[in-house]
Write a sequence for this structure.
């Protein structure tokens, strides 16, 4: 008589491993796409916050900021000034101006009169796909594969 053996055969174990690999192959790209979508949503939210801060800065100092550092927090007990207006947290106003896989930049062609803020993925197709742009109009524009400008598609 044959003894009854306990356990799994090699074929059964290989089938289970193959099934797990198939499930992983399906799940991992979806997780990466979800991460990119979350990073892009965070970038758009940050741009909206920056637009609000720039408008508040303009109301307080009769000009738009010329750099992100102008919107930075002040030292404890200090009074906000045009060089440190205490309108944004240090995450967005401290070099290298990065948050959630995006790098932000504020430029001003005519200092104090206009401004432009861009959000660029740190690693295209890894941290984000779209690039974003906004200015004093408050409209957020995006582009895929190129730098976003005022003429790019609005959100």
């Amino acid at each position: 008589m044959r003894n009854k053996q306990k356990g799994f055969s090699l074929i059964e174990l290989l089938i289970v491993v193959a099934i797990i690999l198939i499930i992983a192959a399906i799940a991992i790209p979806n997780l990466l796409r979800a991460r990119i979508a979350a990073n892009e949503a965070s970038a758009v939210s940050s741009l909206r916050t920056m637009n609000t801060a720039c408008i508040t800065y303009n109301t307080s100092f009769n000009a738009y900021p010329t750099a992100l550092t102008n919107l930075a927090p002040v030292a404890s007990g200090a009074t906000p000034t045009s060089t440190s207006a205490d309108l944004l947290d240090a995450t967005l106003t401290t070099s290298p101006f990065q948050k959630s896989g995006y790098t932000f930049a504020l430029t001003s062609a005519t200092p104090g009169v206009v401004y432009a803020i861009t959000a660029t993925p740190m690693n295209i197709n890894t941290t984000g796909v779209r690039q974003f742009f906004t200015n004093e109009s408050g409209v957020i524009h995006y582009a895929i594969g190129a730098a976003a400008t005022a003429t790019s598609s609005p959100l």
Notes: The chain is about 35% helix and 15% strand.
